[in-house]
Amino acid sequence: MKKDAITRNYLSDPAVFADVFNYYIHGGRQRIRPEQLEERDTAKTALPYGADGAAVPVQRYRDVQKLCALKSDGETGYVLYGIESQSQVHYAAAVKNNLYDAIEYACQVEEAARSHRHAMKQKKREGSADAAEEQKKPNSGEFLSGFWKSDRLIPSVTVMILFSPDEWDGPSSLSEMMEIKDPKIRSFINDYRVHLIAPAQMPDEEIMKFQTSLREVLLFIKYSKDQEKLNQILKTHEERFRELERRAVDVIAAVTSSRLNYEEEEEVVDMCKAIQDMREEERRIGKLEKAQEDARNFYNLGVDLETIARGVGYAAETVRQWIGLETV
Q: Tag placement on the chain: N or C end, fewer CB within 10 Å?
């Protein structure tokens, strides 16, 4: 499975998804519950007007998006949350995420217009002449836009997660992608900020605010290039790393290119053991590759086969195959 598919599959889990926004928006407080999230179609199509009024379809695929219903002061409010997963720095992330949010709002306007057209057609079929209903007819501005004065958009919030041990060195806002020296012009440009989670630039105390396995995923990725520090992290958080959900381990293995040894059907993986087994396997492979290299070098120097076999500690027939000699 491709790396992006693995991270998307992991982030689509409602508990992990909620954890992302509980951290980013609420500082780790558990305000958003998984059961409050509703899956959304990640393929968004907007219909902006083109030349001569022609409708031009635009389609963009988001990684993961969910609708959240939250109650406040006795009323239910809705927010659309989206996550974009990156395996490397995206230097146009501000444009990319801004486009996703803009298309989301364009779709909402189109959906509102479609809903109003349907309602008006329904009234026309029913032949209603009620005076109160007559007052609900759209004015010219509402009719032109399809969006009525009383309509409201559902806010869209997008967070980008960098699944990489590298630091984010790209622009974090739209304005950072521009070179504008004139402050007057700059004041008229609508900026867009990238909401970013990049483990390499996060203090451990911040990562510890996550409540799901995303905590261990980000910690592992952050220190994946520092074996000594990674060992400390595994020891400090051993209890959680010894019972890590498989999907989280899949992400770690894919992102860090670690050849972790675990069964795919396992629901819970002992990461400490998996890493130990991986390192033992790496040492075994390293020892084998060193023996093969030494055997070829000694043979090229004219050392006889039996002496080489004793020197590298493998059977003469095995050494013969390494060197590429025919079996006698």
A: C
How far apart CA 318 and CA 303 sit, in angstroms, is 16
In this structure, what token pair is assigned to residue 19?
Answer: 């954890």
Give whole-number Cα distances, 183 to 94, 121, 172, 176, 193, in Å: 21, 50, 20, 14, 19
Tokens of 31: 């305000």
- DSSP assignment of 302-328: T--HHHHHHHHTS-HHHHHHHHTPPP-
Taking the CA atoms of the chain, what radius of gyration do you get in angstroms? 29
Helix (H) or strand (E) run with residue 40 in it: none
Residues 27-50 have pLDDT tens digits of 999 999 999 999 887 776 655 544
pLDDT in tens, 106-118: 999 999 999 988 8
Entry pTM: 0.79
